[in-house]
Fold this protein.
Amino acid sequence: MEEIAPGLWHWTARHPRIGINVSSYFVPEHGLLLDPLIPPEGIERLEELARPREVLLTNRHHWRDCGKLIDRFGCTVRAPRVGMEEFDEGQPVTPYDPGESLVGGAVTVHEVGVLCPDESALHVPSVSALAVADGVVHYGELAFVSDDLMDDPEDTKVGLKEAYARLADELEFENLLTAHGPPVAGGAREALRDWATSAP
């Protein structure tokens, strides 16, 4: 685990289903986990920073280690309402909606809605961060997921860039928290705007 900005922690761990490393985040001030897998140092490492209380998923596919976190800490897990069909009775998830304020006002939900209907972005001003789901990944540079994960790649890419350009214009943030690839720590708003306004 690494503190990438004051009060904002990041780590990668191997996703058991897709077999690649993915990113997770913790904001101890709010007891907030974003798209979490258990860190390599173990679940106890989280508790050394603060007891996790809330888990937010940026889309329905990011359940990851929520079951273990619920068992250990009794966390509340929230995900986009339009993705609720993904979860079964053994996965207790409370829905959220675009525009909603979460975690006692610490997080605001913003709709992306392209790639999948539940694609969301979560703005966390206290750590100057925007957490994104699968619409943009970061492996050396900002990019799209592969075309075979899109129903209509050309239209989807245009829609994603329009959505992220709008978010970069409307919101203030220095850190972009990608679920796939390392975060962009510092200068992220400009980086996202430049990428989103470049030619597809």
Remarks:
- The chain has one domain: 2-196.
- The first strand starts at residue 2 and ends at 5.
- The two ends are 34 Å apart (CA to CA).
